[in-house]
């Protein structure tokens, strides 16, 4: 559902940007001056990219480990590099505790999804244990 909503929001952003460009006052008819037009196009493009990237966050597991795509980067971890899975009250998404002391957010499992997110976090914790990692 996130992908569908993300694409819909991106379409609304593009259509809204186009409508704003045509409705804007300009020296010679509609449109801003070239610099403002370029800035608005850049802002709409950046917004669309951010929305589409957010719509494609995921956590993909396989027998070797987990591949996590968040907003900025995609990380692949083997099960033995994961020490724990945390998803407590007030946390926005699942967090993986890594054996090197770092943490990795798993934005694909968000607290806004309620009971579904809690089931998925428990399933991920079970997969970590089955794969050879340890859970606190």
Q: Could you characterize what this model shows?
A:
The chain is built from 3 helices and 6 strands, in the order H-H-E-E-E-E-E-E-H. It has helices at residues 2-23, 34-54, 115-131, and strands at 58-62, 65-69, 74-78, 82-86, 93-98, 103-110. The strands form 2 sheets. The protein has a 3-stranded antiparallel sheet with strand order 1-2-3, with helices on one face. A hairpin with a 6-residue loop joins strand 4 (82-86) and strand 5. The longest helix is centred in the N-terminal third of the chain and has 22 residues, at 2-23.
Structural class based on helices, strands and sheet pairing: alpha+beta
Average of per-residue pLDDT values: 87
The helical percent reads: 40-55%
State the strand order across the main sheet: 1-2-3
Shape: elongated
Number of helices: 3
Q: Whole-number radius of gyration?
A: 21 Å
Order of helices and strands: HHEEEEEEH
How would a crystallographer describe the biggest sheet? 3 strands, antiparallel
Distance between the termini: 31 Å
Q: Count the strands?
A: 6
The unreliable regions are none
| Beta-strand content bin | 25-35%
């Amino acid at each position: 559902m996130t992908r569908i909503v993300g694409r819909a929001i991106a379409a609304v952003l593009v259509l809204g940007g186009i409508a704003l460009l045509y409705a804007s006052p300009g020296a010679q008819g509609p449109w801003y001056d070239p610099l403002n037009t370029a800035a608005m196009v850049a802002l709409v493009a950046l917004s669309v990219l951010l929305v589409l990237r957010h719509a494609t966050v995921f956590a993909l597991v396989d027998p070797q480990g987990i591949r996590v795509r968040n907003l900025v980067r995609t990380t692949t971890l083997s099960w033995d590099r994961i020490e724990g899975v945390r998803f407590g009250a007030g946390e926005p998404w699942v967090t993986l505790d890594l054996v090197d002391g770092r943490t990795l957010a798993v934005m694909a499992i968000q607290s806004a999804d309620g009971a579904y997110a809690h089931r998925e976090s428990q399933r991920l914790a079970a997969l970590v244990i089955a794969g050879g990692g340890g859970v606190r």
